[in-house]
Design goal:
CATH architecture of the largest domain: 2-Layer Sandwich
CATH topology of the largest domain: Cytochrome Bc1 Complex, Chain A, domain 1
Strand content: 15-25%
CATH class of the largest domain: Alpha Beta
Helix content: 40-55%
Number of domains: 3
Largest sheet: 6 strands, mixed
Number of helices: 20
Strand order of the largest sheet: 1-2-6-3-5-4
CATH superfamily of the largest domain: Metalloenzyme, LuxS/M16 peptidase-like
Structural class: alpha+beta
Number of strands: 12
Length: 523
């Protein structure tokens, strides 16, 4: 019942967002609507950063608190620095295994007890994993704040990896991997990213064969060791937003989290004392503070930073994954790109939308859908990570059109790059204008804004107001600058192309053009 109440409350908020974005959703289906929305000039938006309090506990845990009394709910969003980049090939996939175990039970809650506790108290809480960090999110009615915070502390601090459900989770992961081997999209990503990222941990999650092989190496003991090395208050940060009192929440956080990472004898002593949480925000790091931290174990986490290495052997390489039962040819083509610090990221992103943003006005859609009728949809994406990114284009075509579609993609990029079809002011205006209308829709709630602040400030070292600097920068972008940036950072000769489809229908097209192509037969 409590989850139903929370759901209804969130739907009230979401209805306003969905209603206001309904017209935008139609962009996928109507070119005329896209053009009409893009012509009317929209106001340059400004995202309001909510008032917040940043606290840091003695063990290094960082929390942002935001009061929002519109609805009687509490929401949490957080990150643990590290992610999949902490994995080794021998234990590829261990991050996903670990969070699945953490989501299912703890030392004090078996699988059934945790499910019942969440249900009775109307709590949602779970962990996820990505390349550079683990994430977690939760919510509950504000009347159940204590239950939510205590469960979060339990799941973070007291996981149980030798639980009865270990074998079942392992079997489920194995079945999921075997199933993925039959899916065209999974095969496409597997052969694309294992070639782009090679032996870097960023490639591990998509490498199905590697994950299947590594699964037998994962034991409860190794999960425990991986947890101990990678999850700590010192690399954890989260936001709590909602119907809360900041001072009361500070005390609650101190009660539930300040002993995390503490040496046992100090933990026992701490539990007998009645200490009040101090605001660490404005305090200068001192010798006394350093001494205070000595009561904690080695809570610092070594974050691995292996830079993605570029393999020039990928340039122009084409891989055909033979899937005899495929009805279409799925295509993913791209190359290594920059990390999160890429200085021209905003300018390139806007220019790339002109080239391949996925809407009817983009060059790729106009060429390959409107003119040629090869595709239903096609999009070019720039993907950034902490240690290296990727640029890629995804689409699917009838098998007989595979070669022509690939050549068309490269041709359109070359036409912009060499200046034959430069980016025009009216094209860029439509993109910027649409961004001004719909970019703020992603930041209508205080949680979404403070989540962006955390990612910008704490994870990527940017300014608090970076989101508004993004808006300011893309609004100042000229067509000539967009043209310059896209020309500099687009590389049509570097494409690594992966195709998943029927060899009999696709291979002859490339052989006829005397193009080298590597054929992969699925085991």
């Amino acid at each position: 019942m409590k989850k139903l109440i929370i759901g209804i409350m969130l739907l009230v908020v979401l209805f306003q967002v969905v209603y206001s974005e309904a017209a935008f959703a139609e962009v996928e289906y109507s070119q005329e609507l896209f053009e009409s929305l893009a012509v009317n000039k929209n106001k340059v938006p400004h995202i309001e950063i909510p008032d917040y309090k940043r606290i840091e506990l003695e063990n290094g845990l960082i929390v942002y608190l935001v009061e929002d009394h519109q609805l009687p709910i509490i929401e949490i969003k957080g990150y643990i620095n590290g992610g999949r980049r902490q994995e080794t090939k021998e234990l590829a996939g261990i991050s996903s295994f670990m969070v699945e175990m953490m989501n299912t039970g703890t030392k004090h809650f078996n699988e059934k007890e945790m499910a019942n506790y969440k249900d009775i108290n109307g709590i949602d809480f779970a962990f996820g994993v990505s390349n550079d960090y683990l994430s977690f999110a939760g919510s509950a009615l504000s009347t159940d704040t204590d239950e939510l915070i205590s469960l979060m502390a339990e799941m973070l601090e007291e996981p149980k990896f030798n639980a009865n459900h270990f074998t079942r989770v392992k079997q489920e992961l194995y079945r999921g991997l075997v199933q993925a081997k039959t899916q065209e999209s999974s095969l496409l990503d597997m052969y694309f990213y294992k070639n782009i990222y090679k032996n870097h941990p960023y490639s591990f999650d998509d490498d199905i064969d590697l994950n299947i092989a590594a699964l037998s190496n994962i034991t409860p003991e190794r999960l425990e060791s991986f947890y101990d090395k990678n999850i700590s208050p010192a690399n954890t940060i989260f936001a709590i937003v909602g119907d809360l009192d900041t001072k009361q929440m500070e005390q609650m956080l101190y009660n539930y989290f300040n002993q995390w990472g503490m040496i046992e004898e100090d933990k026992e002593q701490e539990s007998t004392e009645n200490k009040q949480l101090k605001d660490k925000e404005s305090e200068v790091k001192s010798q006394e503070e350093a001494k205070e931290k000595s009561k904690y174990q080695d809570i610092e986490v070594e974050i691995k930073k292996p830079i993605v290495e570029i393999d020039r052997e990928n340039y122009g390489k084409i891989i055909l994954v033979n899937k005899p039962d495929a009805t279409q040819a799925k295509i993913k083509m791209g190359y290594n790109f920059f990390d999160n610090s890429f200085k021209d990221r905003i300018d390139f992103t806007m220019a790339n939308i002109v080239y391949g943003g996925g809407d009817f006005e983009s060059r790729l859609m106009n060429k390959l859908r409107t003119e040629k009728g090869f595709v239903y949809g096609i999009a070019a994406n720039d993907q950034y990570n902490e240690l290296g990114g990727a640029y890629y284009i995804s689409t699917e075509v009838k098998p007989e059109n595979t070669y022509q579609a690939i050549e068309g993609i490269k041709e359109e990029m070359s036409l912009i790059k060499n200046g034959e079809k430069k980016i025009k002011e009216d094209e860029l205006f439509k993109i910027i204008n649409l961004y001004n209308a719909f970019f703020p829709k992603s930041y209508k709630s205080k949680l979404s804004v403070i989540n962006r602040v955390i990612r910008d400030v704490e994870l990527q070292g940017r300014d608090i107001d970076y989101i508004n600097k993004v808006i300011e920068e893309y609004n100042q972008l000229s067509a000539s600058k967009a043209q310059e940036v896209f020309a500099e950072y687009s590389y049509p000769q570097r494409f690594l192309t992966v195709i998943v489809g029927r060899k009999e229908e696709i291979l002859p097209q490339f052989e006829e053009q005397e193009v080298d192509i590597e054929v992969v037969e699925i085991n």
